[in-house]
Amino acid sequence: MSNTLLRVHPSELKIPYEYKRKRSCCMQLTNKTNQYVAYKVKTTNPRKYSVRHACGILPPRSSCDITVTMQAPVEMLSDYHCKDKFLVQSVAVGYGATMRDFVPELFTKAPGRVIEEFKLRVVYVAANPPSPVPEEEEEEEEDASPQSEVMSHGVKMTSVFDAVTVSTLTDRSADKVSSAEGVSVESMLVAEREYPVEENQKLQQQMELLRAARSSQQGFSAMFVLLVFMSSVCIGHFMKQIKV
Predict the structure, then answer these.
(1) Residue 230, C-beta contacts closer than 8 angstroms, at least 6 positions apart
(2) Which helix (H) or strand (E) element contains residue 223?
(3) Which of 63, 18, 68 is nearest to 39 (CA)?
(4) Domain boundaries in the chain?
(5) Distance CA 99, CA 166 (A)
(6) Quick one: 29 exposed, middle or buried, by C-beta within 10 A (0-12, 13-18, 19+)?
(7) Do you find a cis peptide bond into 10, omega within 30 degrees of 0?
(8) Run of H or E residues at 198
(9) Which of 32, 40, 87, 36 is nearest to 61 (CA)?
(10) What DSSP string runs through 77-146?
(11) Torsion angle in degrees (nearest 10) through CA of 168, 171, 175, 176
(12) C-alpha distances out from residue 62 to 39, 43, 95, 133, Å
């Protein structure tokens, strides 16, 4: 029986099969008429598959996408043979019908009601099929292998040269550091030798200052005694003259 209400695409559901992982596929329903069409999607294994937008009403010349999700398989398959099937039922409804008018009785047989059905089988496909490698690419890889070996040898030689250069620079820097350390040690020894000489000079200067201070103090005391003696002599002579 040909479908005059809906166009179903594709004609079979190809679902990638992968162990312990959910997979999905889509199908599209298109209303080919100028009237409202109600549809319903059913499966022979409802525990294994979930259908999004499993039922609805399509306005004239409109379409919708149906998503079918297979639950994660719990066993490995030796082949991809599958016996599961889907059924799409469709029926014409009144103009301007909405989901409020959708009832299960629409898909029960009744006089004057035409229910169209479209069956789809499920086909399992490999989740990650291996990509074939052209022979030309294999030949190019074989031709490129000697070049890769030459490049690897070049890289090795470059790495050896770099290692020698680094070691030479390291030795030079070590020599510079050692020479700088030698100069600093010599300067420290010279400073240590000059330090006692400077201290001795300072001590000698301080001793000379002390001696000068003492000599000035002694001279001052002698002059003071002399002045006192002279003044006393003058006073005594003056007193004698007054008595006479």
Answers:
(1) none
(2) helix 135-243
(3) 63
(4) 6-126, 150-215
(5) 81
(6) buried
(7) yes
(8) helix 135-243
(9) 32
(10) -SS-----EEEEEEEE--TT--GGG--GGGGS--TT---EEEEEEEEEEESSPPPP--HHHHHHHHHHHH
(11) 70
(12) 13, 24, 14, 43
Q: Is the dihedral of CA 29, 33, 36, 38 positive or negative?
A: negative
Question: What amino acid occupies position 121?
Answer: R
pTM: 0.52
Question: 6-126 is classed in which CATH architecture?
Answer: Sandwich (2.60)
Query: 31 CB contacts (<8 Å, ≥6 apart)?
Result: 5, 6, 37, 58, 59, 60, 61, 62, 63
* pLDDT (tens digit per residue) in 22-55: 999 999 999 999 999 999 999 999 999 999 999 9
Distance CA 153, CA 174 (A): 32
Q: For tokens 């103090």, what's the residue?
A: 217
Q: Which amino acid is at 70?
A: M
Positive/negative CA dihedral, 133, 136, 137, 142: positive
- Model confidence over 43-97: pLDDT tens digits? 999 999 999 999 999 999 999 999 999 999 988 877 778 999 999 999 999 999 9
| 139 vs 141: CA distance, rounded Å | 5
